[in-house]
Structures are given as structure tokens and as C-alpha cells.
Amino acid sequence: MLRGAATAGAGAVSVSLSLATLAVLPSACMPANTAPTGPVAAGNVASVPVGTLNLVTGENVILGRDSDGLYAMTRVCTHQGQLVSVVSVAGVPALHCYAHGSEFSMNGAVTHGPAGRALEHFKVDVAADGSITIQGGQQVAPDWRMPVG
């Protein structure tokens, strides 16, 4: 409960709050996290080894690569919208939401709740020079891959 008092005098407002009642939340706990809705530059194929998950800097999206190719998914947890982080489970990349403990496989499937839905996947394009673009507004099936050679 936030307790305090406000007083006004001569056009000024003074607010007094008990510091013990204030809490600071990490930015990953804020509900304004949203998945991308448009194109996102995501580096070059040469820098994405098979068997990895990579957070795309400045975006709430993850780029993955497995033996079938490249794929992308939201970083926004389906439980309450916090951001998931890349972790390692027995040497295999996975995703974990530190807010409430949800866990997801390398492909975004729920492996431990409270999340009840898999992470959304997005189309990935690769240009002739190997540059990667994630199409944030174009959802695809979780098994969709952009083959790369």
C-alpha cells in the first residue's frame, strides 16, 4: 500500500511518501513488452551457428538455427508478457521467464508453466549476401524454417 500526503501552497505541490512502500521492478517485469510488428534486421547467417538461440539487440525477438534452418520467435512470455531469457538446460539452449518461472524449449514450446501457450513464430528472410530479416508481422507455424546452405 502506498501511503503519503500531498499539500499545495502558492502554486507548488509537495508530496511525501514513505520510501519503505516503494519498490523498483526490473524492466523485464513491465507489461509494455510487445513482439515486433514489422521487419527486424537480425545480422548475417554466417554469425548464427546451428544449435543456437540469439536475442536480437533492441527487439523482443529471438533468432534460432537448427539443422533445418533459421527461425524466429517472440521473446514475450505468453503467461503475462514479461521477456524470456536464453538459458542452457543440459547443454541445450532453452528459454526461461524469470518473472514467474515459465520455461520453453529451443523451439518455443512450453516445457514448464504457468505459461499455457507456445511462443509465436515469425517468418525469416535471407538476402543473397546472407543478411537476415525477421518479418515481425508475419506469423508462421512453429516448425517453419528458412533453409540456409
Topology:
Layout: E1 4-9, E2 12-17, E3 39-44, E4 52-55, E5 61-66, E6 69-74, E7 85-89, E8 92-96, E9 103-104, E10 110-112, E11 121-126, E12 131-140
Antiparallel strand pairs: 1-2, 3-12, 4-5, 5-6, 6-11, 7-8, 8-9, 9-10, 11-12
Radius of gyration: 20 Å
Structural class by secondary-structure content: mainly beta
Question: What is the average per-residue confidence, as pLDDT, rounded to a whole number?
Answer: 83
Tally of contiguous helical segments: 0
Our measurement of the CA-to-CA distance between the termini, rounded to an integer number of angstroms, reads 58 Å
Write the H/E string, N to C. EEEEEEEEEEEE
Q: What is the correct CATH architecture? A: 3-layer Sandwich
In a few lines, what is going on in this structure?
By secondary structure, the chain is an all-beta fold. The chain has strands at residues 4-9, 12-17, 39-44, 52-55, 61-66, 69-74, 85-89, 92-96, 103-104, 110-112, 121-126, 131-140.
Structure in words:
- This protein has about 150 residues and is mainly β.
- It has a single domain, classed as Rieske Iron-sulfur Protein (3-layer Sandwich), CATH 2.102.10.10.
- Helices cover about 0% and strands about 45% of the residues.
- It is built from no helices and 12 strands.
- The strands form 3 sheets. The protein has a 6-stranded antiparallel beta sheet with strand order 3-12-11-6-5-4, with no helix packed on it. A 4-stranded antiparallel beta sheet has the order 7-8-9-10, with no helix packed on it.
- It is globular, with a radius of gyration of 20 Å.
- The N and C termini lie far apart (about 60 Å).
- The relative contact order is 0.19.
- Residues about 1-30 have low confidence and may be disordered.
